[in-house]
From TrEMBL:
Family membership: Belongs to the CvfB family.
Domain Conserved virulence factor B-like winged helix, residue spans: 218-275
Provenance organism: Aquimarina muelleri
InterPro entries found in the cross-reference section: CvfB_fam, CvfB_S1_st, CvfB_WH, NA-bd_OB-fold, WH-like_DNA-bd_sf
PANTHER family assigned to the protein according to its UniProt record, in alphabetical order: CONSERVED VIRULENCE FACTOR B
Record protein name field: GntR family transcriptional regulator
Superkingdom of origin organism: Bacteria
UniProt domain Conserved virulence factor B first S1: residue ranges: 4-63, 76-129
Taxonomic path: Bacteria, Pseudomonadati, Bacteroidota, Flavobacteriia, Flavobacteriales
Amino acid sequence: MLKLGVYNTLEIVRERDQGIYLCDDDGDEVLLPNKYVPEQFKIRDELKVFVYLDSAERIVATTLEPYATVKSFAYLKCTNVSDIGAFLDWGLEKDLFVPFKEQASKMRAGSWYLVYVYLDEETNRLVASSKTNAFLDNSLVLLSPYDEVDLMASHPSPQGWNMIVNQKHLGLVYGDEIFQKITPGDQIKGYVKKVRPDGKIDLTLQQHGFRGIEPNAEQILKELEASGGFINLNDKSDPEDIKEVFQLSKKSFKKAIGTLYKARKIAIEEDGIRLIE
């Protein structure tokens, strides 16, 4: 069965004036229009294509790569608003539809929105929703402290930044642990600090304890090399200056330069740190 909204690996079965027809293991066929047909191909070759509905609501294949697939989150630009809903650019010829009932706030052309892409079972259409919390589930969180996770920035809160965790859960990075600029839709690596009994996930963008020293030290070494071997920051520097240069807290910075000092990689001087050749 052809799967809408995802990549399908299909077999080329025949060529026609409008393009080539591809077939899955169940015998279901879909057209790949001429504009996407590779220059060289043979019948029985396999192609990886994205399958969706064209403007006439017909199933069609494309070799274009959308910005999101079904059951995933993405940060997309609104291209148009009509009397039935909004439309988002997701990298394909036909824009992605967002019904009014699925808009957390009224969408406007030219603005960007974090949305979830899904298949509407009633209409069999691919649609999006900006009511993203409805598609996140923290009832069963199979994560442990120190686990590395993929994060997508959702929205700020008084406590910090709400994050989508591994495209499944909702988590929070507290504001006093953020040392870099974050905007909605940013995709970054993070680490689990704690999973609370109610399923809420506390996150950090820095590795914990000794786990964080090595990558932080490596980052400092790279900055030193790029700066000619000297940076006018040390363990007595202002935390804001450290944050601006290294995106680290002063505590993490001190641990990292301490490790580098003990390894005789750097010298800590009165006015900064110096790389030892």
